[in-house]
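debug: dumping io for the single-chain case to check the tokenizer round-trip. Nothing else runs in this session.
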Amino acid sequence: MNFKEISDRFSNDLSGSDAFKALYRGAFDLMKVDVGNAGLYFVIGVAAQAFVQKYEDQGITAEFADNAKATMVALTTKIVAALDAEPAKRLRMLGEVATDYEWNVTVF
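debug: decoded output
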């Protein structure tokens, strides 16, 4: 399975920790077979894993889960685009996703 397929599956899954868990597992698995893009997968995997670690055993509202999922879909969409980009642009897009996650994502 490639990252686009993993991203699409996440987008189509129900909101919640199970979808985030499948996303981070898929991203981390891809790191083993596509080392050249491991940084892209790592950023998404860490973000998805953070959501699971923070909320898996907590009751969250559907609205909160949907908002978190929408945030992650925006990040994965950018990574999918980066995978098709030239190396320099890919690196810049990775930096944008990492920066966005660190400084702008507050839910996970």
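debug: round-trip ok. Residues 62-83 form the longest helix (22 residues).
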